[in-house]
Amino acid sequence: MDPLVNAPDGGGRGARCAVRVDTVPAERDRPRDTSLLQRPDGVVGREEAGVVSAAAAVVERSGTDTASSALPGVLADVPVAVLLIDRGAGAVTYANSAAVELAGNVRLPVDIDTWGASVGLTDLGGQPLASTSGPLSLVAQGLPVTGEAVRMVLAQADDDLPAQDPAGRPDRLLWVTGFPLSRPDGDEHLSLVVFLEVESGGSDAADDQLRALRERAVVATDIAFTITDPREPDDPLVWVNPSFTRITGYGYDEAVGRNCRFLQGPATDPAAVAAIRAALEEQRAVSTTLLNHRKDGTAFWNHLSISPVFDGEGELVSFVGVQTDVTERVRVEHEREAAFAAEQSARQEAELARAAAERAQADAERARADAERIQGRLALMAEATSTLIATLDLADVLDRLARLCVPLLADWVFISLLDDTGTVRETASRHRDGLGEELRVLATQHAPHLPESSPTRRSIASSRPVLVQRTGADLDGLFTSEAARQAAERLGTGSLLAVPMVARRRTRGAILLARAGTERPFDQEDVDLAEDLARRAALAMDNVRLYQQEHTVADTLQRSLLPELPAIPAVESAAHYVSASTAADVGGDFYDLLHLPDGSIGVVIGDVVGHDIAAAAAMGHLRGLIRACAWEAPDPDPGVVLARVDRLVQGLGVASMATMVYARAVPPADDGAPWRLHLASAGHPPPLLRTADGDVRLLDDVTGLLIGVDGSLPRRTTSIDLPRDTTLLAYTDGLIERPGTDLDEGIAELVDRLAAAPVEASPRALCDAAVAGSLDGRDDVALIAVRFR
To answer: Could you read off the pLDDT of 92-106 as tens digits, one per residue?
Structure first.
């Protein structure tokens, strides 16, 4: 420990001093030794030992070797003078603020007799205490001093007049208490001395002084010391001194291990409690007065000071509390009794109110549980509807249905779908813990051979729910296969519920729900919920079935109308068609390649408005019209041909509206000349040209009205020269449309993909490059690429 240094304000008795200490980490696992709080005869000392007890607890918390360094944070502001004595050196090594005020400008460490002389300590007869029988010497020898009166003689200003303190007294009376503090077997031998100043009331009689001294000492030492451990959950008490027990009525064993909030009551000021809690969280000292309660329920006003204790590494290891009963200073006895009676009445009222509140809370919780259950069911049904109709893939619908059932409704589920002959043709299953092998066994060995007694078969036959509550009953009657029965046992069959899936007056299958244990069997509410879910699932699956039937017919029709590209000399061609994957996945997109009678090449791309079987049929009619008009046209000009097609469409009512591009490529007259390309458009996206060196050009100047808008208007034809090995690429809007973007962005992306293709890419490779990573499945895509050699 560094020596006590003088305060900045200079010397003189009463000058404040400061101590700098270096601490080391606390030995947390050190066993607590309560022998330090006892006299040699084993009897615990009088209540004045509160300060000593607190210091001993600090020794236990911080380790014997660092007891002196732990004391300043605990005893610095205790309202009594405290000294720490190193018995080996016979010197004072620590003095708290009150002791510094007694000694004045004295540097530590200092010989104990020198310190006593600087304070002016004498016995009651006026003799100096520097003797082996004096209380300080006894404490320095390691002996306890349970209480002895001494006199503090103030220094004289001159030889004739004694010094006077502010109260006009020539000297002061002190009560001395001291105990050995450190462990006998430790490396450090310490003792603690406590000085209590007493007011004698101005009486000169020694007996009166001594009596007043003892009465004052009793009052002054009526201080409870507590230590808590913030490193433990809820910051429990780990030590209390005897004064705490006398004040509160709680014994050591009743208090230690609990948070000291058990002293609070309904009348305790919440603001004071909040201030204490905030200080503890911020690890700072706090002092307040609040109403506490003893073990017998009586209230008392408690002046509480709490200080944090940190080890050498700055880690919080303890909170030390100093508590004093200040009831008499707060109120008189009859006021205390009135407050206690009021507190008792408030407690009874609070108990009644709490009971009523608990009943009301229980009722509210039941009502909330009922509301949550109903809301949960509605939420499940809403989720089921939105989830099941979000896909038109049957396997996906089954998987989504299984996920809805497990684990919300059951521990596992097995779904069976029937074909038109009543045979199980498709299954789906799910278990909350996986168990895929057991579910596979049920799918392969049980589902194709459902016995008549099985809940699934009974539910399908009756179109009604079947509930089987099993409590270890035999499963042989429910499963035809031993492997299936064993698989079911491993899955768990405590309670089984089968509900039919009925849609459009036909049973399409059944859902088998199972709960493994018997502690939560299915009830009627579960049956109603499962039935509702099964009806929605059946309708979704039937919609998938109808969609697939319609799609198969329409897709077959549309593909039958798309031509096989003919082999034409000096021309290399490829086409690509992709149908949409949504409900409207069949439409009127088409392409065609014609070797016309005059030797020219006709290229057609078109799109009938609409996405259904009618659009596909209209596309077939329109393709026939364009072929006829192009094949025997009096004027082969593409604009004239499209105008004639437009008039025929409106006259015959073939289609409502359509977009189209018709291109007529005339071969060169000699080997060195280019091809001549003539184009006309009816509101269709502009075609592209890719030259032999890989450059891509957009023919965006080829425009015109849609087919079916106004057949009387003339149509314009654009003519350009085509260098040899140039590729014409025409497409429908499904290739360039994207949600949230315009067509120009889609066309730019298509141009980039074609430009990035290898220079030597064939028409087939260009078609593949055009559709690579670009389709979102929202519309049909037709694409034709023709290279002119």
So the answer is: 988 888 888 888 778
- CA dihedral angle for residue 515, residue 521, residue 524, residue 525, rounded to 10 degrees: -70
Are 730 and 770 part of one and the same domain?
yes
Q: What is the pLDDT of residues 128-146, one digit of tens each?
A: 776 667 788 887 887 767 5
Same domain, 176 and 240: no
660 contacts: CB under 8 Å, gap ≥ 6: 604, 605, 606, 607, 622, 626, 642, 645, 681, 682, 683, 684, 707
User: At a CB cut-off of 8 Å and minimum separation 6, what does 282 contact?
Assistant: none
3-state secondary structure at position 772: coil
Q: For residues 559 and 551, is the Cβ–Cβ distance under 8 A?
A: no
Winning range, highest mean pLDDT, from 486-490, 546-550, 745-749: 745-749
- Asked if 510 and 590 sit in the same domain, the reply is no
Quick one: 217 and 233 in the same domain?
no
**Would you state the structure tokens that stand for residue 55, as one six-digit string?**
């210091």
Q: pLDDT tens digits for 158-210?
A: 444 444 444 444 577 887 877 665 444 556 677 778 887 765 444 455 556 55
DSSP string, 91-145: EEEEE-HHHHHHH-S--SSEEHHHHHHHHTEE-TTS-BS-STTSHHHHHHTT--E
Same domain, 55 and 125: yes
Structural domain boundaries, residue 323:
223-330
Q: Is the peptide bond preceding residue 758 cis, with omega within 30 degrees of 0? A: no
The rounded distance, in Å, linking the Cα atoms of 400 and 398 is 5
Does residue 314 share a domain with residue 261?
A: yes
Q: Are residues 534 and 463 in the same domain?
A: yes
Is there a single domain that holds both residue 135 and residue 181? yes
Q: Is 582 left (phi over 0), alpha (psi -120 to 50) or beta?
A: beta
